[in-house]
Amino acid sequence: MIDTKSFGRESKHEAAGSAHVARPLFFISDLHLSEAIPKTVAAFEHFIEVTASEADSVFILGDLFEFWVGDDVLDPAVDHERARFARRMTKLMHTLSERGIGLYVMHGNRDFLLGKRFMREAGAMLLPDPYAMTAFGTRIVLAHGDALCTADRAYQYFRRFARNSYAQRAFLALPLGARLAIGERMRSKSEGARMNGVSAKYDVTRKAVSELFIRSRTHTLIHGHTHRPAMHREVEGVRWVLPDWELDIDAPRGGYLRLDAGGVRALPL
Ligand code: MN
User: Residues 112, 100: contact at Cβ < 8 Å?
Assistant: First the structure.
């Protein structure tokens, strides 16, 4: 189930362990951005424009967007609210590289169609899931988290199908209007599903977590997806779960993880 191919590719964050005072790495996930949640979008804008200024790099571990139906929404000729929103967010993210801040993006279960054009226009580098790297002398593994929810068999079946390159090509061959409509429908469905998402079926399993720690040879794991922010002390190491962002409701929530020489810390927005 878990792709181990990426473990051979180590990131260049070794530099963070060198003698000069290194800037921290910031981790976020599960913002589910769309033009329907303006306060959450404003919080993301603030995070990129202000909060991230301190960072060496920003890591987005999946589900940045509520859904992504193909990079052709970035074509300036596409006159659609959703497409304009996608272009605005992509431009915003590009300001990071203009300021010398790295941007790394991992696919989530909603935005796994973010492609090469998006990465180029956002000034981002796509990370495989899972991804092991060394920063500040510590080896850590990053994941979106959906692949660890192995008790949800129906979802894992869908995941294998959705990540299949033939299935993706068939979907991307549909007209953009049709894809946008399908995305809308998937969104309203997942909103219903979120209501009863408290079952253990929608959390990671011990077995999958243990396997990932062992295969990646790490003692620190950072993931999102489950919307259950916490720091868990597992048998093999520490598992940090990122919060989702939702600021357009009565009890707003969100936050990020910060990694520096002192270790990992959870911070509010
Ligand atoms: Mn997710």
Answer: no
CATH superfamily of 4-267: Metallo-dependent phosphatases (3.60.21.10)
Give 67 Cα–ligand 1 centroid separation in angstroms.
10
Ligand 1 center from residue 188 Cα (angstroms): 15
All structural domains of the chain with their residue ranges: 4-267
Distance 79 CA to ligand 1 centre (A): 28
Look up the pTM and report it.
0.91
Q: How far is the CA of 20 from the centre of ligand 1 (A)?
A: 36
pLDDT at 2 over 60: no
Provide the pLDDT confidence category of residue 190 given band limits of 50, 70 and 90: low
- Between the CA of 31 and the centroid of ligand 1 the distance, in Å, is 9
pLDDT at 15: 44
Note the pLDDT of residue 192: 52
The DSSP secondary-structure symbol of 121 reads H
Helices (H), 130-269: 153-162, 165-172, 176-195, 206-216
User: Ligand 1: distance of its center to the CA of 22 in Å?
Assistant: 30
Q: What is the DSSP letter of 66?
A: S
Q: Is the peptide bond before 24 cis (omega within 30 degrees of 0)?
A: no
52-79 confidence digits (pLDDT tens): 999 999 999 999 999 999 999 999 999 9
Distance CA 90, CA 95 (A): 9
**Edge-to-edge strand ranges of the sheet holding 131-135:** 131-135, 138-143, 220-223, 238-241, 230-233
* CA 242 to centroid of ligand 1, rounded, Å: 11
**Cα radius of gyration rounded to whole Å, the chain:** 18
Q: What is the pLDDT of residues 98-128, one digit of tens each?
A: 999 999 999 999 999 999 999 999 999 999 9
